[in-house]
Write a structure and sequence with these properties.
Number of domains: 5
Protein name: Alpha-L-rhamnosidase
Largest sheet: 11 strands, mixed
GO molecular function, one term: hydrolase activity
Shape: globular
CATH class of the largest domain: Mainly Alpha
Distance between the termini: 85 Å
CATH topology of the largest domain: Glycosyltransferase
CATH architecture of the largest domain: Alpha/alpha barrel
Number of helices: 16
Helix content: 10-25%
Pfam family, one: Bac_rhamnosid6H
Organism: Nitzschia inconspicua
Structural class: alpha+beta
InterPro entries: Alpha_rhamnosid, Bac_rhamnosid6H, Bac_rhamnosid_C, Bac_rhamnosid_N, Rhamnosid_concanavalin
Length: 991
């Protein structure tokens, strides 16, 4: 048995434009076959369900077809204008209209708009928008014209490129017909299937977690749904397209009777039943459900008191921290409960009751970002017998086995077709590492779980004895583990008997960075694995112990690499809304983690920073201005809170709590008031960029205000913390030097000496190692690179002895596949010691920004900087997904002084390519025995830079200039192949 609880328009010819609902105009247009319009998205998502914006924003990309991708004739492509087209579903848009068969809406022309904008464009079409009706199916597409290659051509005769269609379906607008119901963890409702003429939609939220089934078949692929929120303020609901499911199921019956059934789990909401989930601040109320099924835009089935409920569930216990117990004998006994005709007039079934708990007062909000899903499976690497014992009779064995999956991950274990006797209990205990010194002796088979603290992380499966074998995947829990200890079986497991099922918010991997150096490659993989493990509808700190909270400080440090690596736009948009809910209504402060568990105190500096950091990331990396408008009042209140904090203490005693968290022992933590003041000034700098990008009418005022405050307090930072006698900040720790260097508040006359001290402390005093914690290491790496010493930062990244990322990967007893919480996690004790924590993961973002050198100079990567710092490496390959398309860099060292750079900028962008005049990243800006360096550059074999300077004439290269020790090339979009030759000019010698 399976106990996973599914119990049992042609662009080549003509474009047809409907100018209004009654007339159609056919226009023959010229088509550009070399260019296509692709990657249509609505509010960051592909064909989303449950769109709750009356005027959603749509995006598209312009793509040059492969055969022309390297052609210099297809460079500097610019969209001249666009035209959106909208088609609504052929059902009535009028709730009072009984005729729901009218084809009301063909393709509607929204009119040509002269604009190069392709990202987050409001879907405004006067005759049909805003979309203020529930459950309306919308299709849209876009036509574009490009700027003519010959500037003298008539723009209106430019070829038209037409996209395929995208679609979305609207959310429930206004109040629900359904009611919150409770009374049991199993819920069912039989109904007669209506005729589905066009489409069907299910809107549902079951808290803590829910799974929905139609006639026993699971609806959708969401896991641990809905996502975690502050249930007193908002509850997310999911939206499913049920068209195919209803039509297929209707075809399988003669009486047209069907069942919607739901099983509920505790999640973050409920303490039980049964009690003892160990979740902090959980409700004493049981799980509850709200559900609404629509057919052709109208509700036909809702949750109410007519539903039947039961607590006779095979899920005997479930806890996010502790695990799940599943009794397959119960599943066998109640077999058929998800099918029509099941008899519910027994003592275990009753009528649902209306829920009266706090969640019924919360806002129901569409969960408009990717859900948690089962995203991959991993087979065991090894299975080792730990021990064998006899139970009951001498012939019955109890074998304990250790399974190593080879990768620390957020996952559950799936048992596959296991043969076991009725009543046999299989116990699965999860762990990140094996026992080793100093925690105990190392024998290679004993799991270490003390770092999970009170989280039991144990799943139990009680067998039914099905002779066909039994399959089980936990429904309502998740663990962070590499190793699983399995006991209770009487036979040894085969590798094919089980697998780890990875689960996390299913954001798509969008960018890649590969190195010829295997250590850098491993570090990048390690960070991304930790990030994925901690995307659980919010960005958590860890996936395994009794915590797993949305710690803001961790997210502030890794928001950039998350946005660079994954499609985070929709995810961060919803989490920011939760932050706005969590903001202190009295003073504008943010808490330490979101969702808050109760009335949380004001967060620590550098933790509250996550709010403005993520806003900055959405604005800078995705070009999102609307999010700045929506959050404007909250942002302003936050900055008034910061100013009030400054007025109360000044810079010298600026408030702090955690400081530069987790420096490597035996090194002390940096002076906490300095790190607090850094957060204050750093937030001011972020705010200045936010208000510079914001279209809000009050943004210029706030920009001036923050600029004045920064100008006033920057000298105060130096005066408060700089020791004139020693020539360093505070006690001279690396963090204490790196933070002011990054801020740019060090006066010019001492900047070099402070930088020299930082480098000396790294290279000489500490033998090439950092002494910094989570804040210091991020800005230490960035400050070194910003000030021309990226070579020192690269040395830190390549270090393999303690403390370093390489040490995490290469230590004796627990070589890691994910980032540790501590530099010394292998010896740091059990109390706070996750092996899957992303807060030290900022190094991966540094690799993109300062090794590959790819960064946005204008919002949304409209103008890109590519400034590689790679001369010591043999090669790298980078692909950064921008809103406009992929930015690509391929670098190779061909021989001493000869380098190749292949660069691609997507249509709609421009770029600045900055090339160092050096043969090694250690000698940028230096001479060779007094002789200067000279550089020659070719693009596709044509000289573009020589001793005499820029050589014009290559398409797409708009200009070039030498600035100090680099050559700056201004590029239009397109693909380029550069060859750079650097040599020593022996004829010249510095004076």
């Amino acid at each position: 048995m399976d106990a996973s609880f599914g119990f049992a328009v042609d662009p080549d010819e003509e474009m047809v434009v409907r100018t209004n609902r009654g007339s159609v105009a056919a226009t023959t247009v010229q088509v550009d076959k070399d260019v296509s319009v692709t990657s249509l998205r609505t509010e960051y998502l592909e064909d989303p369900m449950g769109m709750d914006k009356p005027i959603p924003r749509v995006s598209w990309q312009i793509q040059v077809n492969d055969k022309h991708v390297r052609s210099s004739s297809r460079r500097s492509i610019i969209q001249q204008s666009y035209q959106l087209h909208v088609k609504t579903t052929p059902v009535s848009l009028d709730d009072d209209d009984d005729d729901d068969t009218v084809d009301c809406c063909g393709w509607i022309d929204c009119g040509w708009v002269v604009s190069n904008q392709t990202q987050l464009v409001p879907l405004q079409c006067d005759s049909v928008t805003p979309f203020t009706k529930s459950d309306i199916d919308i299709e849209w597409k876009v036509s574009i014209r490009l700027e003519p290659e010959n500037k003298g051509d008539n723009k209106n005769t430019s070829p038209v490129i037409v996209s395929d269609a995208a679609r979305f379906r609207t959310a429930i607008v206004g109040s629900w017909n359904a009611k919150w119901i409770t009374g049991g963890t199993l819920l069912r409702k039989e109904f007669t299937m209506p005729n589905v003429k066009h489409y069907a939609t299910l809107f549902v939220s079951g808290i803590g977690y829910h799974h929905v089934y139609l006639d026993g078949k699971k609806v959708g692929d969401h896991q641990l749904d809905p996502g975690w929120t502050d249930f007193s303020k908002q509850v997310w609901y999911s939206t499913y397209d049920m068209t195919t499911e209803l039509q297929q199921q209707k075809a399988t019956t003669t009486d047209n009777k069907h069942v919607l059934s739901v099983i509920l789990g505790n999640g973050w909401w409920s303490c039980g039943p049964p009690p003892g989930t160990n979740q902090p601040m959980c409700s004493s109320d049981p799980p509850q459900l709200i559900l609404q099924l629509h057919v052709d835009g109208k509700p036909v089935l809702v949750s109410d008191e007519t539903w039947s409920v039961s607590n006779d569930s095979p899920v005997q216990y479930n806890s996010l921290y502790n695990g799940e117990t599943f009794d397959a004998r119960v599943a066998e006994r109640i077999h058929g409960w998800q099918s029509p005709g099941y008899f519910t007039a027994t003592s275990s079934w009753s009528a649902a009751t209306l829920a009266t708990s706090v969640a019924t007062n919360a806002r129901l909000v569409s969960q408009l970002f990717p859900p948690i899903r089962h995203v991959s499976t991993t087979p065991p690497l090894t299975i080792t017998i730990v021990s064998q014992s006899s139970t009951g009779t001498a012939t019955t064995k109890n074998i304990t086995q250790l399974v190593d999956f080879g990768q620390n991950q957020a996952a559950v274990v799936r048992l596959k077709r296991i043969h076991c006797s009725r009543g046999m209990e299989i116990t699965m205990r999860h762990a990140e590492v094996l026992m080793h010194p100093p925690y105990g002796d190392f024998d290679g088979t004993t799991i270490y779980t003390d770092n999970l603290r009170t989280a039991q992380a144990t799943d139990r499966y009680i067998c039914s004895g099905d002779p066909k074998g039994e399959t089980y995947t936990p429904l309502f829990t998740q663990h962070g583990f590499r190793y699983v200890e399995i006991s209770g079986l009487d036979h040894t497991l085969e590798l094919s008997d089980l697998e780890a099922v990875e689960l996390h918010t299913d954001v798509q991997r969008t960018s890649y960075l590969h190195f010829t150096d295997p250590l850098l490659e491993q570090i990048q993989d390690m960070v991304l694995s930790s990030l994925k493990s901690n995307l659980m509808s919010v960005q958590t700190d860890c996936p395994q112990r009794d915590e797993r909270r949305g710690w803001m400080g961790d997210a502030a440090l890794t928001a950039e690499i998350a946005a660079l690596s994954f499609g985070m736009g929709a995810f961060y948009t919803r989490w920011l809304d939760q932050m706005m809910d969590a903001q202190n209504p009295n003073n504008g402060a943010m808490p330490n983690f979101v969702p808050p568990l109760n009335s949380e105190p004001d967060g620590a500096p550098n933790w509250q920073t996550a709010y403005v950091m993520i806003l900055w990331v959405l604005s800078t990396h995705y070009g999102d201005q609307e999010v700045l408008l929506r959050h404007h009042e909250s942002i302003v209140r936050y900055y008034y809170f910061l100013e009030l904090s400054y007025n109360q203490t000044g810079i010298a005693k600026f408030r702090e709590k955690y400081g530069d968290w987790c420096p490597p022992p035996p090194h002390p933590k940096a002076y906490e008031h300095l790190t607090g003041a850094f957060a204050f000034l750093g937030d001011l700098k972020l705010g200045m960029e936010i208000f510079r990008n914001s279209p809000h009418p009050d943004a210029p005022f706030m920009l001036r205000r923050l600029t004045e405050l920064f100008t006033k307090t920057a000298p105060e930072f130096h005066d408060s913390f700089y020791n004139v006698t020693t020539g360093v900040y505070m006690s001279g720790l690396q963090t204490e030097q790196a933070l002011p260097l990054y801020l740019g508040v060090v006066p010019d006359d001492v900047e070099q000496s402070v930088l020299n001290h930082l480098i000396s402390d790294i290279e000489v005093t500490n033998g090439g190692h950092t002494t910094s914690g989570i804040i210091g290491i991020k800005y230490e790496m960035e400050a070194l690179s910003m000030l021309g010493r990226g070579d020192v930062a690269l040395d830190l990244a390549l270090q393999t002895t303690y403390p370093s990322w390489g040490y995490m990967l290469q230590n004796q007893y627990e070589p890691s596949t994910t980032v540790w919480e501590l530099w010394n996690s292998n010896t740091g004790g059990p109390g706070m010691n996750s092996r899957n924590h992303h807060m030290f993961g900022s190094v991966a973002g540094w690799m993109y920004k300062y090794v590959a050198g790819i960064a946005p100079l204008k919002p949304g990567f409209a103008h890109v900087q590519i400034k590689p710092n790679v001369l010591r490496l043999d090669g790298i390959s980078a692909k950064v997904a921008s809103p406009y398309g992929d930015i690509k860099l391929f670098y190779s060292k061909r021989e001493t002084g000869l380098f190749g750079y292949d660069i691609t900028l997507p249509p709609g962008t421009t770029g600045t390519f900055i090339v160092p005049i050096a043969m090694d990243d250690r000698n940028i800006g230096r001479t060779h025995e007094g002789h200067p360096m000279e550089i020659e550059m070719l693009e596709s074999g044509r000289i573009i830079w020589s001793d005499s300077g820029f050589v014009a004439g290559v398409a797409g290269i708009l200009g070039a200039a030498r600035e100090n020790d680099h050559v700056h090339l201004e590029l239009g979009n397109g693909s380029y192949q550069f060859q750079v030759s650097v040599a020593v000019d022996l004829e010249l010698k510095d004076q």
